[in-house]
Amino acid sequence: MSEITLSPAQVAAISEIKEWFTHRPQEQQVFRVFGYAGSGKTTIVRHAIAELGLETTIRNPDGTASGADGVLYAAFTGKAALVMTRKGTPASTIHSLIYRVSEATEAEIERVKQDIADIRAKLPGLPPAERLLEQSRLGSLELRLQDIHKPRFVLNDQSLVRDAALIVLDEVSMVGDNMARDLLAFGKPILVLGDPGQLPPIKGEGAFTQATPDVMLTEIHRQAGESAIIRLATLARTSRPIPYGEHDTFVWKMPRHAVTPRQMLKGGQVICGRNATPASSSTSP
After folding, report:
1. Following DSSP, what letter does each residue of 137-198 receive, concatenated?
2. Residue 184's CB: how many other CB atoms inside 10 A?
3. Which end of the chain is more exposed for a tag (fewer CB within 10 A), N or C?
4. pLDDT tens digits along 241-267
5. pLDDT tens digits for 21-53?
């Protein structure tokens, strides 16, 4: 890390993270480090973790862990977790970290089917008031049977989080209230990294982004500023127009009619204002 020159704001942020984790995690379970893309959130976290002397907990294929009493890294999406891993902090999705898949057994399925059959058999002989109640129960059971084969995510009380010293979450803008509550239930200190310019969850607001950040990084550093994605994100966030054309080898803004099927099939990501946009879209093939 010595090749990176930290700014005064980054040095101060590292000091604040260390002070929180060392002295105040019991009274403040969540520490928020926010900043725009390219402001160095990941960099300062790596420095803070190293200076605290914490190891990274690695999840082994058999479910065990190496460095159990260390730091676990996670993100909401698999892509964000992959980016964290490529930056040197092995990460998983939050779902895989704290949930397990629960599926209905054959006995449970048969029990629901039998309950449905029993209600249908007795409905004709019931008085009106009782019939309404049983019809309501029947509807609920039929809805349950429709979805009973779908796997459900339940909190994994054997998660590696139980033995971790610290949880680091990146891109937390999409973490909603239910997932945040489940994370907090383990009682571990949580360091969250957020970007005020990112989208909220599909439903509701980001659980970790509603409070005032403990650290807010605003300076975009030179190395990040050379990225076309960072430049365009900054233009969009500051309501400035993004010009058409090639911004680097991988990032283009093109009129919709100029996007060919071959480009669409090449992979990558296509970004448009909305599905119904008739005239143009931005693409990054």
Report:
1. HHHHHHHHHHHTTS-EEEE-TT-GGGG-SEEEEESGGG--HHHHHHHHTT---EEEEE-TTS
2. 15
3. N
4. 877 877 776 677 777 777 777 766 665
5. 999 999 999 999 998 777 788 888 889 999 999
